[in-house]
Amino acid sequence: MEGDGDEATATAAAALGYAAPETRDPTSSPGPARDWWSAGVLLLELASGLYFADLHPSGLLRSHTPAEVPETVEARLASLVSALLHPSPELRLAEDGVRAHPYFEGVDWN
Fold first, then answer.
1. What's the average model confidence in pLDDT over 67-83?
2. HEC assignment per residue over 66-98
3. pTM for the full model?
4. Which of 35, 66, 85, 101 is the most buried (most CB within 10 A)?
């Protein structure tokens, strides 16, 4: 069918947006930091109503730069999302940091 290749390419490119930047590095090992990246992408899309690809200035297939969080996203949530989407897995917010983040102030995690 005509156009199937274009659709498959678009689907693959969209899926890459949910993958952390380090997944493109063959020397990188899988780990939870990749999952936190994906959680950040989903949160940003839910909070903004926009696709992650539309909020990423460098494009999804180039080096990852910080995503542009719209001003309409509440400040504490924007801070959480930005920390989850840090390009460096070593500096990306993880479970303890998420639980301690001001966005979740008052949440009893026990």
1. 93
2. CCCCCCCCCHHHHHHHHHHCCCCCCCCCCHHHH
3. 0.80
4. 85
